[in-house]
Amino acid sequence: MKSKHWFLPKCYGYGFFPITWQGWLATLILLGVMILSAYTNNFFNSQVDFPDGFRFLLDTIIITTLFSLIFKNKVKGGLRWQWGRRK
User: Fold this and answer.
1) Nearest 5 degrees, angle CA 69-CA 73-CA 78?
2) What DSSP string describes 34-51?
3) Class of residue 46 by CB neighbours under 10 A (exposed 0-12, middle 13-18, buried 19+)
């Protein structure tokens, strides 16, 4: 039986990492969207001014929040704050 989970939660803190090809594909898509956001906000220029830098920071927060909300049901055990492994 195949696992329906694409991600495992981190041991400490809030977050998850991919364990299947679907999880890796979703992570690569997130990375591509982040690079596209950096490019459109002139983040790769040698001098980044305040509006572009702030816009990129805002985009990063929004994109990662949406990514987490969309894929929270694909995390084994659910997405919550972790205090380490239970014994």
Assistant:
1) 100
2) HHHHHHHTTTTSSS--HH
3) exposed
| 3-state DSSP assignment of residue 85 | coil
3-state helix, strand, coil in the chain (%, to 5): 50, 15, 35
Token pair listed for 49: 């001014």
Residue with tokens 């909300």: 69
What does the pLDDT look like over 23-70, one tens digit per residue? 999 999 999 999 999 998 888 877 777 787 889 899 999 999 999 899
Name the token pair of 13: 């803190």
Using alpha carbons only, what angle is made at residue 13 by residues 8 and 14, rounded to the nearest 5 degrees? 60
pTM: 0.79
